[in-house]
Amino acid sequence: MKEGDTVEVFILASGSKGNMAYLKVGDIKIFIDAGISYQKVKNKMQAYGENLYDVKTLIITHEHHDHIMGLKMLLKHAAIEDIYLTKGTYNALPVEVVALFERTHFVEADQIFEVANEIQITPFMLSHDAAEPVGYVVQNQDKKMVVLTDTGYVDQGYHELLSNADLYIMESNHHPTQLMQSPRPFLLKKRILGERGHLSNDDAAWLMNLFVKDKPSKWVVAHISEDCNTQLDIEESIVKNFDDPTKIEVFYANQEGLPGIKL
């Protein structure tokens, strides 16, 4: 990112039915994941007043269906040229999908890479039941953004890296009591609650209070369970875990997405 570039973040969809975000930094345009249908991507970009075919770069967090469901058709019909992902994620994708990749860039946790020689991105390890999942820190001298979903916990060694961002796309997946009382199978409940599952409301709010230190920040609450969570539950966790809840501006993302949030 060049100093002074306008940074704008759009959520195309968030949740267990599909996840995808769109990042605009000056003239550079990036998709993060591709978990919704190509038609939905096209419709959402049109609704946001954005040109789908201007996006040349795709970053993938992991291979679960709700993050790559629309990948094949996106690669067939859009204009994606560069794809960034871990080798573990690449190897876990269907052969017919990776055959459509134009330029593949393998990333590793803790190894910084650049997009268009301007955007610095640091992948970091997540704890999720996928092949080699990562989150991403996107930054320059002025702005910093964190993409952190699909993890059972965040390693303490990453707390400094993840602190003081201008915006977080971070999950607050479930309320544990609601999850345990839901009709879901016990093994699924155990998976979600486990260290390779998803962050609960209290987990997420506690981490956000830790991360947001010296300046106000924006939190796009992502990957919210539709049947084991509510906005009120999340807000209660924020009030309970934050030293000062006024230091964050909160946005709630779902399958409807969110229009551009400027940093």
What is this entry, summarized?
The protein has 263 residues and is of the alpha/beta class.
User: For the CA atoms, what is the radius of gyration?
Assistant: 17 Å
Distance between the termini: 13 Å
| Secondary structure: helix percent | 25-40%
Structural class: alpha/beta
Number of helical segments? 10
Name of the CATH first level of the largest domain: Alpha Beta
Please identify which CATH superfamily of the largest domain we are dealing with: Ribonuclease Z/Hydroxyacylglutathione hydrolase-like
Uncertain spans:
none
CATH topology of the largest domain: Metallo-beta-lactamase, Chain A
- What is the average of the pLDDT values? 95
Sheet with the most strands: spatial strand order: 6-5-4-3-2-1-14
**Tally of distinct domains:** 2
Give helix and strand order, one letter per element, not per position: EEEHEHHEHHEEEEEHEHHHEHEE
Strand content: 25-35%
Walk me through the structure.
By secondary structure, the protein is α/β, with parallel strands linked by helices. It folds into 2 domains: 109 residues, Metallo-beta-lactamase, Chain A (4-Layer Sandwich); 103 residues, 4-Layer Sandwich (Metallo-beta-lactamase, Chain A), CATH 3.60.15.10. The chain has 10 helices and 14 strands. The strands form 2 sheets. The chain has a 7-stranded mixed beta sheet. The chain has a 7-stranded mixed beta sheet with strand order 7-8-9-10-11-12-13, covered by helices on one side. It is globular, with a radius of gyration of 17 Å.
